[in-house]
Amino acid sequence: MHLRGTPFWPNFKDTILFLESSENEADFKKGDSLANIDSYLADMELSGVFKQIKGLVIGRPFRYSQEENSLFEKIIIDRLSNYHFPILSQVDIGHTDPMITIPIGTKVALDSKKNSFELLETGVI
Q: What's this model's pTM, rounded to 2 decimal places?
């Protein structure tokens, strides 16, 4: 998020965006605050990111309680309800164990109705 407005801000056009929550800066035993998550999504929305992407994959939140997990999902649904792209959530990417490594820049297929994500090409030649 610190790259917004700089030449280093990525081009999100026609991409699948991967997002994940990390540890809380004040307490590593907790996940990032839900207020921060909501704020990050609002910033991305105001930056036009969600108008450009073709899909969204959200990592399983880091050390959230069951209640926080439910609120996390509600924030996502509320923030993205005006957009029409597939969304997968609770995926083992980011600060999770186990953790799936996703190669950047490869072609993929994403189907939220089937709850599937598939790499269509190798990440390394």
A: 0.86
